[in-house]
Amino acid sequence: MASVQRITHTRQDGTTTTSWRVRWRDAGQQHSQSYTTKTNAKKKARQVEVAKDQGTYIDAGGGKTTLADYVTEWWKVKTDLKPKTVASYKAVLKLEIIPRFGATPLNRITSIDVEQWLVDMKSAGKSASRIRQSKNLLHQILAHATRHRRIGHNPTEGIRAPATTTKKLPRYIAAGEVDRIAAAVDDRYRILVYVLGYLGLRWAEAIGLQRHNVHLLKRRLHIESTLSEVDGEFHRVPPKTHEERDVVLPVFLADELGAHIGRYVEDDPDALVFTSTEGNPLRNSNFRRRVWTPALVAADVEPLTMQQMRHTAASIMASEGWPLQAVKEQLGHSSILVTADVYSHLFDESRDELAARLDRNHTATNDG
Known about the structure:
The chain is an alpha+beta fold. Helix content is 51%, strand content 12%. The chain has helices spanning 38-54, 67-75, 83-101, 111-123, 128-147, 175-184, 187-199, 203-207, 251-264, 284-298, 306-319, 324-331, 336-367; strands at 3-10, 16-26, 29-35, 214-215, 220-223, 226-230, 233-237, 245-248.
C-alpha cells in the first residue's frame, strides 16, 4: 500500500514548514516522492495503487537504467540458451546493440531511434539476416523490461526489419554425386557422407551420434542430443527443435553402418559413432580442410556445404515420392510449414513425376 506521511522541517530561524511524502514498495524496492500539499500526495498514492491493480504501474526509477546495465540483469534469467545461441547473442550485443543503445536509459529509447538504427545498419552493408537478428534481440530485451514494468511500451513493437529481397532456392546435388564424394573420402568417413547426404542430419547431430543411438535391427537412428562446437569447446545439447526424433535408415545404409561401427566405434554405449583418426570429436573446420574439400575436388563436385548436403537429402526424398510430412519428420523441422517453405519447389518436381506416372498408367491401360 502507498502511504502518505507528513514531514515537518524546522528552519534555522525556528519557523517550520510542512511537506508530504508518498512511500510505496515495488519489486522489493522502496520508492518515495515529496509534495507540498497533502491533496497532491494523496492523489499520487491513489494513482500508484490504481496502476498496480490494473497492471499499468511503471517503475519510474527503473526506466532510467541504461540498456547496458539492464542487459546484465536480463542475462541472469537466460539460463536455458544453448552455447551457440549464447555466443550469437553476445556477438550481436557487442557489435550492434550496445554501441548504439548501451548508454541510453531504457525510457529514452524511441521507435524512431530503432527505425534509424535499422536504416543505418542497412546503409553500412549489414545483411538482412543480421539486421533481423539484431532487431529481434533488442525486441526480446525490451519486452522483458516492459513485462517487468521498467518501461510502459516496447519501442520495437510494430517495426519490421528489412526483408531479404530475393529468396534463393537451396542448392543440392544428385544421389550419384553423393556416391562419388563417399568414394573419395577415407573409409572412416564414408558412412558419414551418406548420413549427411541421404538422411539429412545436421552436422552437430551427425558428429554427436553415440553407439546407443543406433538401432540397426529397427533401422533407426535416435536423435536425442547434438555435439555443438562453440569457441573450440564441444557441448552436448538438445536438438535444434528441442525434440527427440527417430530417423529411418535404408537397408543398405543400416548394413554399412553396422560394419562401420564394428571397425571404428568402441564398445562403450556412449562412444561416438564418427570420430577423427585420433578418436576425438570431429571439428567442422578441420574436417572441411582435411577431408571434405579434397574429396569434392576428387569427385568433381562444386564446393558444397554441410547444410547443402541436408538439402540434398531432402531432394532425394522428394524424388523418391516421400510425402512432405515424412520429410519433415526425417529432417526434424519444428513444423511442416518450415519444410514447405524451404522445399516446396522439390515437391512441384515430384508432382510432375507423379503426373508422368499417371500418363504411363493410362497409356498402358488403354493399350491393353
